[in-house]
Write a structure and sequence with these properties.
CATH superfamily of the largest domain: Protein of unknown function DUF2961
Number of domains: 2
Mean pLDDT: 96
CATH class of the largest domain: Mainly Beta
Radius of gyration: 22 Å
CATH architecture of the largest domain: Sandwich
Oligomer: single chain
Largest sheet: 11 strands, mixed
Number of strands: 27
Length: about 350
Amino acid sequence: MFDISNLASIPENVHTRWASPENLSAGKGAACRNDDGRKRHPFFPLKAKERKVLAEMKGVSGTVRRIWITISDRSPEMLRGIRIEMFWDGATSPAVSVPIGDFFCHGIGRMSTFESALLSSPEGRSFNCIIPMPFRNSMKITVTNGTKKDLPMFFYDIDMTVGDKHDDSTAYFHALWGRENPTVLMKDYTILPKVKGSGRFIGCNIGVIANTDKWFKSWWGEGEVKMFIDGDSKHPTLCGTGTEDYIGTGWGLGQYSNLFQGAHIADMDKYQFCFYRFHVPDPVYFHEDIRVTMHQIGCWGPDTIPQLRGAGMKLVLGKEKINMEKAVKAKSYGIFERTDDWSSCAYFYLDTP
């Protein structure tokens, strides 16, 4: 992914800065400024409803290169209740405003161990992101504890270079979170609503909590991803063949993590799943607009169709009704519309901040 051929190249007038609790300003010579220079402030508490600035730069260009965070309470309440926000070049609206867990691929309020090219958690206790985030004259990254509980310890590093020169083709990093619980029958889940401008869709992570009370353990992931780009209206230019197909596997979904695709949670007991796909080797560019969705379609088979029929379910595919009596006798497979708990974080670059 990264070009290591220029590791020995030292760019002129580009400097390294780290923001952390030991150097909140990321200033030169401003770190570890205690009476004895020893370790005194590696973390800060984040009280209920409190907002903290993690890093801020003004009057300088640069690039955020790495974000690392760990927190003392990694409960579902904190993973969804703490929100990370990012602002570029003086914008008053955030380019990123996402629950901290979902931003770092820890979806559905669950931590997990995984490694990808862009985000990782080596032992399931931390949050790592190395997506480059350029800015031309200012940046600000904040966290807000939206819960009713105080967080005792928040540790972090935000590693940047300043003085980078960005040409007109350099875009701004964005991330958008969404959730539907439940999704709407026969309405595609929206991963990324319509965004106008030019840029690049980096990819997404998605969390699914399947509704086993309603659909039992019938397979939920037959939906196809659809990407509407540059003026597409009713029909997309880009379309996949199935949910697990989109993340590079097939015939169901087990747990794995690769550089650009993975399913780091595949809990077959609870029927909960988290998975990701990053379009690094296969870029998705757009020049006017983009919208990304996913079908909410599942699959019935010989084991589940009798359960669905016995529960009085009326299955459909589009406007077509499925003859369940015939399906039970045939002991075959088929697909049907369904609703579940879906959430996602979409990552993209855009030409405006």
